[in-house]
Amino acid sequence: MLRNAQDAEDLCHDVFVTVFRQDWKSIEHTRAWIMRIAMNQCLNLLKRKQAQLKKQGQVQLLHEQNTALVKSVDTIVMEKVAGEEWEELLKQLPEKLMAVVTLRFIGELSLVEIAEALKIPVGTVKSRLHKALKIMRKKLEQNQNLWLKGENQFGTH
What we know:
Layout: H1 5-21, H2 30-67, H3 73-92, H4 95-106, H5 111-118, H6 122-154
């Protein structure tokens, strides 16, 4: 699921530490409980990786702005705005839909891996992904329309 042996080893260690710090002897379904801990640890790690990638992207963007004279200011601004818009659209989704989109496009997991991770059927993963993308597309179109209205209202330089 993590596609990185080192991350998997670290995660395994964290799971065992979590299990042994808690009163696991009173748990009825130990295997399911441990799997849920592992799942939560995976999701947390993927979120941290996402934040890391965002920071790296910001650093890289600054680097590109300083060193790449090939790109125009307009292009750089549009790339930054697109990234921010994507992030804002993700935040507006319900948590269940956001989880599927994040695991699919940021975590680069397959539909089957997402289904296993979230303990839902593959069909549910597909429908949530479809619904999330539909919502995001609609909001993106609304944002574009607002932007175009503003441009028509105030004109361009």
